[in-house]
Specification:
The protein is mainly beta. Helices cover about 10% and strands about 35% of the residues. The chain is built from 1 helix and 9 strands. Bound molecules: zinc ion.
Length: about 140
């Protein structure tokens, strides 16, 4: 487990150089995370009272009911990763408060037998001047 996490963080550091190029926003103006390899499942991250909520959306960005799906979130640093508390909701998952600037590594699993999909989120709360959104859900770099 520890080795896996380290690899994920190394990959994440390498992808930092690409900036905001591939940020996509969902129907509720949340940040879209890819939870499948074929665009059939997405997570839309929104914020409420300092907690992050990840709603599950299907290929048409329609809400998905949460049943067997599971999700874990890890924050902290490479040296000291910290598991976040995750609560299941009707249409997604609630993640315990995240510190501004923190990277979250989110691991999503469709059901017991399917492969884990890893997504990453930089919770950068600085606001972006052009759009007024916090950087973590700013899509200024989105390709038109
Ligand atoms: Zn922006």
């Amino acid at each position: 487990m520890k080795t896996k996490l380290t690899t994920a963080i190394l990959t994440l550091t390498a992808s930092l150089a690409f900036g905001h190029g591939d940020i996509e926003l969902g129907p509720n103006k949340g940040r879209i995370l890819e939870f499948s390899s074929d665009e059939t499942m997405h997570g839309e991250v929104t914020e409420k009272d300092g907690k992050l909520h990840i709603a599950l959306l299907d290929k048409d960005m329609k809400p998905v009911k949460v049943q067997d799906q599971s999700l874990t979130a890890t924050a902290g640093t490479r040296q000291a990763p910290v598991k976040s508390e995750v609560t299941k909701t009707e249409n997604g998952f609630m993640i315990s408060p995240t510190q501004p600037g923190e990277w979250l590594i989110i691991q999503y699993k469709e059901s017991g037998s399917t492969k884990v999909v890893t997504a990453r989120l930089h919770y950068d709360t600085k606001s972006c001047a052009p759009c007024g959104n916090p950087e973590w859900r700013c899509a200024c770099g989105e390709k038109k």
